[in-house]
Amino acid sequence: MAAAASPATAAAVREAAPAHRQIGIRPGHGPAPFRIGFLAKPSSRWAAISVPPGPRRAAPAASAARERVTEEEERPVSVELEPIASEQQLDWVLGEARQLQLPIVLLWMASWCRKCIYLKPKLEKLAAEYH
What we know:
It comes from Zea mays. The protein is mainly alpha-helical.
């Protein structure tokens, strides 16, 4: 059972934890919009909860969360990778990506390669995140 943290202990953890280790703060982007952050020291077995100062606005946060969930529900879980069988097809794909200003990842793999077979579903899932 975890012991309750005193305010002084929570402040010490907050001072000891670097900003990039705090959930809710993105390196180089400043604090994230109104979130509860969990502060944890790597050697400790507990975490303190820090609520940002200011008025508590649950409704905007809840609606933003609903929007994120709706967007995530519309995204595919994975995307089937398309094989490129010819030089002309490769040129067409690269041209389309350039015209639409989209990044493209080319995966060279062999159907007999164990590592390639292992990576394929992971790359399909990654492609779905950016779809």
